[in-house]
Design brief:
Elements lengths: L7 H8 L21 H7 L5 H12 L3 H13 L8 H14 L5 H7 L5 H13 L7 H9 L4 H11 L4 H11 L9 H12 L17 H14 L5 H5 L18 H4 L2 H10 L5 E3 L2 E3 L14 H11 L12 H10 L9 H7 L6
Antiparallel strand pairs: 1-2
Helix pairs in contact: 2-3, 2-4, 3-5, 4-5, 5-7, 7-8, 7-9, 8-9, 8-10, 9-10, 10-11, 12-16, 15-17, 16-17
């Protein structure tokens, strides 16, 4: 008779045990919920990553103006000789990034940090927030010539996100330094991508015969945007079903996609943060949805949303660039992410 053996370590994992070092004190519990912004910023100095992560997440939910002012003050009063000074600055940069208001002065300072790890991390922030940084390409070229390979690798990856000529100019700067085995394939893939020679088997996109030629073109353009690395499919998946276990809601058959188009455009432009209920399932919304206001123009947003509203089993009207432009102008002064409560107050769900 066979028995399914379960090891001691597996039992510990299943019941949620944590392994500790007996002679060392446990990490102190830090107040996060309800703490002052100044207290939260000081907690970013702690060595425990989980604590710092929770603090950054808490700060994303606070008033952006208050947090940004506090971050500026906190950075200015840091002791430059303090152990971990550059890491503290990096934590501050991540806080501003989390509020979608990246501190450009701080970013540029960290791109020249003494610690290569800090420089590499700053390049990654630059990669994702370039629409807020006028000198993005210039700064990436400099990073591509950095003395440390890890920094150059981040610049090479960031180059692949750029328009063709700008991206190739960054890769040209990177090619002036040796390409180690970590960088070679990445460089070649980025170069092929920018040149349009990166080949991969693609399934032919099915176009509904009922689409007009103009709608078919929008649908194809929207599909290309949806499938870009770091855009919609990363969280909502290629099939639009999301990942409930990871907190990413579906786009298939949801009231948020198929109902009020103005509400959907607002979410896309400004992003969303916090709890949301989709098709009766609750999502905590710990990871903010990317605001595409600075990444996509009106036509691109219209194409993207029209694709989503007519894919994954969805069938709804196309959204026009004019509709997006109207909503963009209407909410241009809004600061920060939307919440589901805020949106539902303005645009309640339709009665089924």
């Amino acid at each position: 008779m066979q028995h399914n053996a379960v090891t001691h370590s597996e039992i510990m994992f299943m019941v949620g045990y944590r392994v500790t070092y007996p002679s060392r004190p446990l990490a102190k519990v830090v107040k996060v919920d309800g703490a002052d912004i100044s207290q939260l910023l000081e907690a970013l100095k702690l060595p425990d990553y989980r604590t710092r992560y929770r603090v950054r997440r808490e700060l994303r939910g606070r008033n952006a103006k208050d947090v940004l002012n506090a971050v500026s003050h906190w950075v200015n009063q840091l002791d430059t000789k303090e152990n971990g000074y550059e890491h503290h600055l990096l934590e501050a940069l991540w806080v501003t990034w989390g509020l979608n208001k990246v501190d450009i002065t701080l970013l540029e300072k960290l791109l020249t940090a003494n610690d290569f790890r800090v420089r590499a991390a700053a390049v990654r922030v630059l990669r994702y927030t370039g629409h807020q940084v006028p000198r993005q390409v210039e700064l990436l070229k400099k990073a591509a010539s950095d003395e440390h390979g890890r920094v150059r690798l981040e610049a090479i990856v960031a180059a692949s996100w750029q328009p063709k000529e700008k991206g190739l100019s960054i890769l040209d700067a990177a090619s002036q330094k040796p390409l180690d085995h970590w960088m070679k394939e990445t460089y070649e893939a980025a170069y092929a991508h920018l040149k349009g020679t990166l080949s991969s088997p693609k399934k032919e996109l099915e176009i509904t015969p009922a689409f007009s030629p103009a709608q078919a073109a929008m649908y194809k353009a929207g599909h290309e945007i949806y499938m870009k690395d770091g855009y919609c499919n990363t969280c909502h998946q290629k099939n639009g079903m999301g990942l409930q276990s990871s907190g990413f809601p579906p786009l298939s058959g949801t009231e948020w996609v198929l109902q009020d188009t103005e509400r959907l455009i607002k979410i896309t432009l400004k992003g969303m943060y916090g709890p949301i209920t989709v098709k009766g399932a609750k999502f905590r919304g710990d990871v903010p949805m990317t605001p595409f206001e600075g990444l996509l123009d009106d036509g691109e947003v219209a194409a993207l949303l029209s694709y989503i509203r007519n894919s994954f089993g969805n069938k709804a009207s196309f959204i026009t660039a004019e509709e997006v432009r109207t909503v963009r102008n209407k909410i241009k002064t809004k600061k920060g992410f939307y919440t589901s409560e805020e949106l539902l107050k303005e645009h309640p769900h339709e009665n089924k």
